[in-house]
Amino acid sequence: MKKMFFTVAIAVSIVSVTTAFANPDGLQQKKNENQFAESFKQLSRDTAWEQKEKVDLKFNTYHPQGMTKIGDLYYMSSVEILEKPVKYEEPRDGYDRTTGKGIGHLFVFNQQGELLKDIRLGEGDMYHPGGIAFDGESIWVSVAEYRPNSESIIYKVDPKTMQPQEMFRTNDHIGGILRDGEKGNLKAVSWGSRTFYEFDSKGKVLSKDSNPSHFIDYQDCESAGKDNMICSGITELPQQGSSTGKYELGGLALLDMKTMEIEHELPISLVSSQGHTVTRNPVYLENTGEAIKLFAVPDDDKSSMLVYETTKLNTK
């Protein structure tokens, strides 16, 4: 499996800023916190998504993981793989593969796809960033070994100074992390989102539960108003017949952040020009009031950000 987290990447935020490099003090007040979740519940497999924009990113994106948007700027985590992990024939010391080598990135880019900042994250074998999320003050990023049941560093990044701060370390591959509100505990998912975690701000594990859903592996998540989060991701299924390729089933899910129970989910059949499901890599959702916008970077290396919008929703 690849990164297997929740990086929306889907990242979902209903907060915006007015300054160029994200002054948290300039955040506009949150409006209609529950509207996002209610609008999302109107989506189905029959929802029409219209592509509004394609922004070619003017830098090597490597293997994108998670994304969030603050004002007019986009923040995207990515892993640059220098040496791919190799599967063992038999597990060794509890691991199923080598560590590999790589570099963790948090890219900042503008609406024209121009790279403004490349923040390096990670240490040693922990070089694989996961899904990211903005809590109204800081961006939270997990950086793990590129293998399950391993180790992770949890950072928060000040979008004003662009400086990362290590918050704690934990003994599992954390594929994505977000904060429950600006001051709440941290919600996280493991490799393939098979396990849900709740941490306090110092890294103490408050709860650890199995994910009951096997529809998709959450790739990226972010808050969607009060008490809710939206996650995006994929699962790879075998093709029928003689094909040796994998079919990428994409999807979105709305979860209750307190109980981690699914409130609504739907498949996403949109694909990129390279044939990847758009929820394969980072996804960010934005509630416009009348519609929902979906920002996605599904392809590696030479990537484009694809922007879709739903038809008008009934927001009464």
Describe the fold and architecture.
This protein has 316 residues and is mainly beta. It has a single domain, classed as 5 Propeller (Tachylectin-2, Chain A), CATH 2.115.10. Helix content is 2%, strand content 50%. The strands form six sheets. It has a five-stranded mixed beta sheet with strand order 1-21-22-23-2. The chain has a four-stranded antiparallel beta sheet with strand order 3-4-7-8, with no helix packed on it. Strands 9-10-11-12 form a four-stranded antiparallel beta sheet, with no helix packed on it. A hairpin with a 5-residue loop joins strand 15 (195-199) and strand 16 (205-210). The relative contact order is 0.21. Mean pLDDT is 89; it is low at 1-30.
Structure described in brief:
2% of the residues lie in helices and 50% in strands. It has 316 residues and is an all-beta fold.
Mind telling me the C-alpha Rg?
18 Å
Tally of strands: 23
CATH architecture: 5 Propeller
Global mean pLDDT: 89
- Please estimate the helix content: under 10%
Give the topology string: H per helix, E per strand. EHEEEEEEEEEEEEEEEEEEEEEE
Number of domains: 1
Distance between the termini: 41 Å
CATH domain topology = Tachylectin-2, Chain A
Query: Largest beta sheet, briefly?
Result: 5 strands, mixed
The CATH first-level class comes to: Mainly Beta
Tally of helical runs = 1
Sheet with most strands: strand arrangement? 1-21-22-23-2
Helix vs. strand class: mainly beta
Strand content: over 45%
Overall body shape: globular
Low-confidence region ranges: 1-30
